[in-house]
Amino acid sequence: MNNPRTRSSLRRRPLLLALSAVALLAPLTACGGSDSAAGDGKTLRLWHYEDKDGALGKAWAAAITEFKRTHPDVKVVFEQKTFDQIQQNAGMILNSDKAPDVMEYNKGNATTGLLAKQGLLTDLTSVVKDRGWDTKISDSASVTARYDKNGEMGGDTWYGVPNYGEFVLTYYNDDLFKKYHVTKPTDFAGFEAALAKFKAAGVTPLANAGNDHPAMHWLYLLALSKADQKWVDDYQRYQGKVDFHGPEMTYAVNKFKEWVDKGYFDKKDVGLKGTDMTEQFVSQKRPIMVGGNWWFGGLTTDIKDFRWSTAPYPGSRMTLGAGGNNWVVPTKAKNKKLAEDFIDITMSPKIQKLIGEEGNVPLAAKADEITNPKSRQLINAFDQDQASGGLAFYPDWPVAGYFDTWLAATQNLMNGGKTDAVLDQLAAPYEKYTATRH
């Protein structure tokens, strides 16, 4: 999982899931009324879950406007969904006559890969090649758009098209570093020295959220600091056996626990959400935040009273990241050609530039084409990570339902749980799945 929409909520209670399913199955009425004409080449039914004020929400709105301009005889029936609605009920919806023509969907084996394996998504390989999208998206960014017959990423068949990239980096409050005479780190020793100096001054240094993705991002990032590409391939793509009691994960849980014990993480953050973590940073309660570039645009808007900057996490050559969420075309979509036309617009120079100007990372635009200086810095950093093989995906991707396992494990650590028990907790569902996957 990757952005605030994909990570901001835990699994809801069954009643809420049922209500989400009802909402998804309800007749589509937005932006043009009834979709009774769907299937005649005159109606495009589109779903996504991006906030309208975010970089991607603005980009998709502009893409819809452009689609309407270039397709004046086509009615666009757009439905704003929540991530949970789509994530929890996609299989049921896409196997019905209520499937949209094009939909934003999370990438990874447990999401796009699973639906592809179930035959619910259209094979887009020939379309990708015919329209040249494969020349605009790097091999590393397209890994999570391509799947094999088992629904495992990195295959030869395109089931989705990403338009943007995402990665995890470090955010620094430059004014707080200056106020407390702390040197901004360039290596891991300097990073830990900064943590210690802030704590000695009575400042909890690290923003965190234990009831959402940030804590698990921290744990995986610590593991990556001791990992190599083979370990990532073994873990994410099942190319070899993963020892959860090996040096990578053992170091991660021990270092995480050490930072909790030293007060670099606040134990009380165990119940917080991702937006609570960003509020800690914006309100200047925490000088350091490690988070995805999906927070970047909002921080640019929200921070008015202090100077801040970004940099790679200095403790690891690799970081969490990948190509962004996929546009997918359900197998039961009624107007697939219109869906392809819409995706093509999202890959156009105009929309790609807008993604960059609004503070996200376009896959088909260069940094020097973007006038926003902070965005240029962000895009260059992502390009460097791509070029160096530094994008290591996300910890919950390998197994369906693994997000909940990682969430419980990191909460266990924050609550004082034993490290060996946490390693066993993470290993159990992974080893069960990999033992029976073929």
From TrEMBL:
UniProt xrefs under Gene3D superfamilies: Periplasmic binding protein-like II
Keyword terms: Signal
Signal peptide: 1-32
PANTHER family, sorted: ARABINOSE-BINDING PROTEIN-RELATED, DIACETYLCHITOBIOSE BINDING PROTEIN DASA
The protein, known as: Extracellular solute-binding protein
Source species: Streptomyces lasalocidi
Lineage, top ranks: Bacteria, Bacillati, Actinomycetota, Actinomycetes, Kitasatosporales
